[in-house]
Write a structure and sequence with these properties.
about 350 residues, alpha/beta, Rossmann fold, 8-stranded mixed sheet, 3-stranded antiparallel sheet, 10 helices, TPP_enzyme_TPP-bd, 2-oxoacid:Fd_oxidoreductase, thiamine pyrophosphate binding, oxidoreductase
Length: about 350
Amino acid sequence: MTAIDLGLPGLGGLDGVPTADQPQKAKDYKSDQEVRWCPGCGDYVVLNAVQSFLPTLGLKRENIVFVSGIGCSSRFPYYMNTYGMHSIHGRAPAIATGLAVARPDLSVWVVTGDGDALSIGGNHLIHTLRRNVNLKILLFNNRIYGLTKGQYSPTSEEGKVTKSTPFGSLDHPFNPVSLALGAEATFVGRAVDSDRAGLTSVLRQAAEHRGSALVEIYQNCPIFNDGAFDVLKDADSAARRIINVVDGEPITFGGGELAVVRDGFGLTVAKTADVAPEDVVVHDASDLNLAFALSRLSTQDLQHTVTGVFRNVARTTYDDAARAQVAQAREAKTPDLAKLLHGNDTWTVAG
């Protein structure tokens, strides 16, 4: 099988072999396994969205791999008719990194949850992002541990009453987007499971990105945290809460009645009629400081929630650099192993 030359312009992050002569459909990405999530789980929507847009990428299924950790979301690879691996708790990014470095012909995806990624897997996540490994990371955030039956997670809001915090959580939660931007991820996005169009748009842009792409997906857990994001799904309240950003466009929402404006070094929300048009912030996905300020507009109570692509920039990927280094070492004709072992930098230890 011949891999695409990754140096060709315009390919972005779409590694693999095009299949323009063999069009695929969503059903081609559905495995023969029974989907076993709870009725009403947001994971169903994400699965359907991924299965629907993957055929449009021009890749063969055997050139796509899904790697997951542990959790409800981590059953994802079973339901995809691609290669996949259900790996170790929190370690999916590490395993996927090895795969991305060794197999440049593959499009590698990581599926994880807020507990898997941000608790035991926190270090693996941030180092993958800072290294800019060519991976697409889907972080399903339901603000609870679902598989282990309802303990609070690293994204549960302060005061959250759960089985492990009967008097309310004392922890201040992570903001996954802020965390990813702090690690200087080259692509960071957010979507809500119920917004199929918005979710598909962010996923597509992540797929086209070459480098680490993290997409946080607000996802409902109907058993242990039902209705956590209902205010973002009700048409009346969502319009005044969801701030969807598009690169190059002024940031307005609420039917244009509200706008995002500068407030010192940060951002705030104002009525559009009360500010000059030039004071409305225009989104720039290459501006790290703006992306971080936008991430801080998203509050625990969901009064304001920014969705869309926060950051999208190009930077050398870890896997490309690693392969180039190996090639350079080979060209330099490094001394063979025996000479290295018996050279001047060896010594004998008395028994």
